[in-house]
## 1
Amino acid sequence: MMPATPDDHWWFKLTAPVRLALEGRVGWECGAMLAARPLLDLAPRGDGHPVLVFPQMFGGDLTTQPLRAYLQGLGYRAEPWRLGVNPGPSDQLLEACQARLQELHREHRRRVSLVGWSLGGLYAREIAKASPAAVRLVITLGTPFTGKPSPAEIWQMSARLTGEPMGLTERHGPFERTPPVPTTSIYSRSDGIVPWRCSVERPGPTTENIEIESSHLGLAVNPLVLYAIADRLAQPEGGWRPFDRRGPRGWFYADPER
């Protein structure tokens, strides 16, 4: 994947109003999820291992319920984070996420897969770095962990707007450092909230990027995202392989290296 250039920055700014308007697709994506449910149910079945789902900023367990219900139907123990509304990053909240991971790891006596939507994906990445022995894999949805604006810059902007401090101390990060477990970043180039280049994972033997066409608000209900998550979670522990785009899948999942 080519690095971002100054021209990319201006292109993002120029197209921002259009991409933001396209966030209205979320209603269509919810309907598409319901219509595609018979096909989604054909995804590989799960092995019953726990999956901890982190919500987006200002979201909570209610916003991730459709995703968790789908994963439950496939045979996973899809678990909410149980920390209320996601108010934004803080060291205390990250420590609470870490405690929730350890709770599930002890309860199920199995490694936990982490799925994080937007800012929730940053939590997933950071606690996987801190406790890799408890984590099976990480999947992020439109998570800004690299590029410009950086997570710290986004937090500074939010703090100026709200008057409330936000962010993580320097002992967390660098955020672009990849977790030491299999890691998948799912993103959309037409995301109206997070510039897609901020979600591009570095190439590596256990890292990958999956590109889909989606709004940011619809990432947790978009049928293509749901299928990709199910496909990634169904891999045997210790047998991770990159997402296979060959055949009909290539019609729906663009080559992220193009």
## 2
Amino acid sequence: MTAPRLEIDLEKIRHNAHTLVQRLKARGISVTGVSKASLGSPDIADALLRAGVSGLGDSRIENIEAMRRAGIAAPMTLIRSPMLSQTRRIVTFADVSFNTERDVIAALSRAAQQAGRTHGIVLMVELGDLREGIMPADLERTVCETLRFPNIVLKGIGSNLACRSGVVPDARNMSELSRLADSIDAATGSVMTVVSGGNSANLEWALGGGADIGRINNLRLGESILLGCEPLHRRPIEGLFTDAITLIAETIESKTKPSRPWGTIAQSAFGERAPTADRGPIAQSILALGRQDTDTDGLTAPPGTEILGASSDHLIVSTGGRHKPVGGEIAFQLTYGALVRAMTSPFVAKAFLKGG
């Protein structure tokens, strides 16, 4: 089988998604399965839907279009603020989009009218992470404006935390989102049917200690399903597989070399400095995988193997006291950032395993 490749165990992904769906269902929270890291893979979308997610969410309309072309008929939400240049595509292929800008909602309204459709809107609220979101003081005005647009249905409000600034979802900011939903209901008479509290970073709050869920009735989960860990501290989630996706690379050189470079030392191709410690001769292998393929800083090597460095196309590892044969393979675990980069790379094959 070709390398480098991602080996994707669909049954483990389905198990992870089903486990989280059931745990959150007991708390009155539905799960939107986030497909952006999979580039809209129909196989992963199918695994998420079989696990019981209420719909699919993606940040790229191109991925949503790919899933539609593959026959995926589930409700789909564009979870990144729409680009004005894509509003026609968005109302054609996405049922709902997350929004913060009046001009964009107006354009979605016009596109929906022209297409003879209605389009759902979730207004995103800024709760401190300083990525997307309407300031709370401006929310009521934006809700009233949104309600006036034809062919637009206001579904509810949402928030996003822990992505840009690492702000932790907790009782305080989640209570604020619930309070805002109550306030909007009272002020406008329009019930917020969706209150989307956030992403995988919300799991500790939602499941960890019997927190008052309030109005929060939806979470958008990607990393926790695909990698079996929570993103605040990257700790494994009990009962989930952390090896549903692995990255396999092939050895293209295996030699004993000094551990310390010689000659005049300047910056490497990526602005780094070589280590100066001399560990003596080591068994060094080079793998056909580099920074052009993935975030090499986000890889975890198997026991007995140490990542020494990387360039665009080469990953250099120490294999302890033994040589890895040329043509041999090494499997790595990935962080979410490394997974997204590897999925995006045209040089990394994707192998879907259906046996579990």
## 3
Amino acid sequence: MVSITSIPTFLKDLWGRFHHDEVAGLSAELAYFFLLSLFPFMIFLITLIGYLPIDQETVISFLRQYAPGEAMNLIENNISGIIQNHNSGLLSFGIIATIWSASNGLNAVIRAFNRAYDVKETRSFIVARLMSILLTIAMIIVIVIALLLPVFGKQIGLFIFSAMGLSETFLVIWNAARWIISFFVLFLVFSCLYYFAPNKHLHWKEVFSGAFIATLGWIIVSSAFSYYVGSFGNYSATYGSLGGIIVLMIWFYLTGMIILIGGEINAIINSKREKKLT
């Protein structure tokens, strides 16, 4: 971790890297790939929900906590269309399309992290693509778990409460803990991303700082942006029917920027550690 006395220097280094590594431009590239991945992923998720004891509204309620209002309207409209044309074949299509589209986004992340660490990609195209696909699959699994914990958390707590005869205090603790668990699931996603994506051998402890800041930053920025759009921003008045897409792209842009900033933070810490060793 960075000491208090070095925080100004650390922030100066981060600001310099932000411009040198073109984080803003790469964030826009990630936002594009995130958008391409979104609706195939929604097809996969909503079709999968048809085989699980969970309803559409529960998932939408969870997404609504983070996604801006206009973006949620766009997502809900597409979900409704998917459900009306429900087809088991959509599950296979959704899986393939999601993995391929999202792996392109992960490829962009890998290039950005290699740039942050000042290393070249020496892994073959096949290895790099397989790495992107494996990370994509892992992220999808963890994201699904992160969705299921808030959704089924209450039912799980009630089951444990009744089966073991615990006090009502347990339910209060459990209701708080399941959201904390979701935070750590997101933290795990970012940690794995920061550890495996760069073409550089790293220690796990070297990626935890960036992963923690990225997790906390994503939750805060998503909630703040959602509040801003709902309270002050009226993108539909400016962009008309494209308002939802614009809001979604801005949200993805901020998400991509937070992910890349977390990688830059880890790269700075790694650079300082290596300088101390030399």
